[in-house]
């Protein structure tokens, strides 16, 4: 039996100005906490038994974090202090949740350089509040210049969309990929085997998600304002580690633009 204390949010000093943030407003309700410093921590105490192996697996992350911090501090003692000041990423990358395609690592970029959204099979769904909020924030607040949709080979999401096995909610999430298969059936049927078929469907999915990015009012408004924002589609090959630019062309957007554009 083990007890784990998970500290999710460290105590911090917050502003006391009630007009600026929720913390200030809550303070004004006089909940009884009169200190300027408040512990915002959420602590979960679990009595769930865990095997030693599982505990070691968990601790690997905590130990790894300590080593990571030590290495960074050795290179530059101000590294995290500088990182905390602000973020000015120039890229938004929408990728798959797959554990084998870590965007920063495969592009040799650092924290602060790429704003990220990841979901199963890198979908850009206009009814997904999460995705739409991330794109709007990246375009209107972070001032990014590049939106990249990155798919990858051996994608479990694409394979699941190809299968008829009942998987619950995930099949609903992947329904747009089935729709794409029908819309592009002539091209897909030209593929000689299932591996090629899956890879081509993966590429088509990336291109369709890029067009979904273009369809958002935030991106279109930014373009009308003369902002320099590029939309790109990538296929990351897990077997080689290399990224292939799928060269999304203006023509592909221009063909459908008149249906989706807005009068701002
Ligand atoms: Zn995937």
Q: How are the elements arranged and paired?
A:
Blueprint: E1 4-7, E2 12-13, H1 22-28, E3 37-38, E4 43-46, H2 52-75, H3 79-85, E5 91-96, H4 103-106, E6 114-119, H5 129-142, E7 146-152, H6 156-162, H7 169-173, H8 175-183, H9 185-189, H10 194-215, H11 217-224, E8 230-236, E9 243-245, H12 250-260
Parallel strand pairs: 5-6, 5-7, 7-8
Antiparallel strand pairs: 1-4, 2-3, 8-9
The chain binds zinc ion (ZN).
Describe the structure.
With 264 residues, this protein is α/β, with parallel strands linked by helices. The protein has three domains: 1-49, no CATH class; 51-85; 88-264, Beta-carbonic Anhydrase, Chain A (3-Layer(aba) Sandwich). Helices cover 47% and strands 16% of the residues. The chain has twelve helices and nine strands. A five-stranded mixed beta sheet has the order 6-5-7-8-9. A two-stranded antiparallel sheet has the order 1-4. A two-stranded antiparallel ribbon has the order 2-3. The structure holds zinc ion. Residues 96, 98, 121, 152, 155-157 line the site of zinc ion (ZN).
Structural features:
264 residues, alpha/beta, Beta-carbonic Anhydrase, Chain A, 3 domains, five-stranded mixed sheet, two-stranded antiparallel sheet, 12 helices, 47% helix, disordered N terminus, binds zinc ion
